[in-house]
Amino acid sequence: MSITYVDAIREAQEQLLKDDPRVFLYGQDISRFGGAFKATKGLADAYPGRVLDSPISEDAMVGMAIGSAIDGMRPILEMQFADFSSVGFNQIVNQAATHFYRTGIPVPITVRLPSGGTPGSGPFHSQSMESIYAHYPGLVVVTPATVSDAYQMLIESVALDDPVLYCEHKFLYRWLKAPKIDHDGLPLGRARITRHGRHATIVTYSAMVHEAVRAADRLQQESGWEIEVVDLRTVKPLDMDTVLASVARTGRLLTLGESFPWGGVTAEVVARVCSEGFHLLDAPPKRLNSRDTPVPYHPNLWAAHRPTPESICIAMRELLSF
Questions:
Q1: Which interval of the chain is the signal sequence (predicted)?
Q2: For residues 107 and 132, what is the distance between their CA atoms, to the nearest angstrom?
Q3: Tally of domains in the chain
Q4: Is 125 a catalytic residue?
Q5: In which domain, by residue range, is 48 found?
Q6: Does residue 238 belong to any structural domain of this protein?
Q7: Could you say which of 99, 125, 169, 199 is catalytic?
C-alpha cells in the first residue's frame, strides 16, 4: 500500500480539520465534487459546513479568506490552477501580504496553488507562480517535492501566522508515491540535501528535484561525476546557508526551475551565491529554466519547453568542463 502526493495533501487537510476548529476549506467545486484534482474528496461529508464551495471569483475567494483570518479563522483556499490566482493577485499581495505590517494583525491564510505543467495542459493551466509571489514581503512560498513534505509542510503552513502560498505540483499528484509519510524533522524554511555529491551542485525545488536526481544518476553512470542536489523546499524564505555549504563542497552551481527564465528563484540563487560566496566558485554559475514562451499544448512541445534530464545533463557537462 502506498500513498500518493495528492493523497498526502488530502490527509493533511483532514488532519487539520480534525485538530483545529478554526480551519475550513474554501474553493471552487471542492465540496461534494472534491475539487478539480480530488484533493478534498469526502471531506465535506466528514466535516459538514467546513468544506465550502466558492463562487468562480478568485478575487472574492481571497478577500473572504482574509476577512475570516483577521477574525480568527485559519482558511485553506484551493485554486483550481495556480494560473488563476492572478485574478486574486491584488488581494494576495496588496492586502494579505501587507496587513500585519500595516496593522499588527496577522492574516493566517494558506492558498493552495496546483502548479506546473502536465502534457496537454497548455498556457493557462501550467504556470509556476512561485517566483512572482516570492517577490513580495510578507508572503511565505513553499514548494514541496516529496510525499512527506506535501503532508508536513501543509500542516506547518496552516500553523503559521503569515499568509502562505503552498505550491503543489500537478505532475506529482499521482505519479509520486511513498510507502508512508515520514517527517525528518526539517522545519519549514530549511532546504534538504536530496542527493550528496562532490563535483557540482544543482539547486532546485518542486518537481524539478526528481528531474535533477535522474540527470545526476545518469551523469554518474556515464562519467563518474557525483552531483549534489539541493531541494530548497521553500523559496521564501530561502535557505542560503544550505546552498552555500553545498557550493563550498563542490565549487560549481546549476540552478534549475520550471518557471520562466526572466528573473525568478533561479536568478535569485545565482545572485546571492555570487554576492555571498563568489570565492567558493570554480566556474561561473549556470541556470536552467523553461523556455521564455507561453507553455505549449502539444505534449512533444511541452517536453521540449521545460527542463528534462537530457537538457540538465547538457548544462551540467558544460559546467563541469569549464
A1: none
A2: 19
A3: 2
A4: yes
A5: 3-178
A6: yes
A7: 125
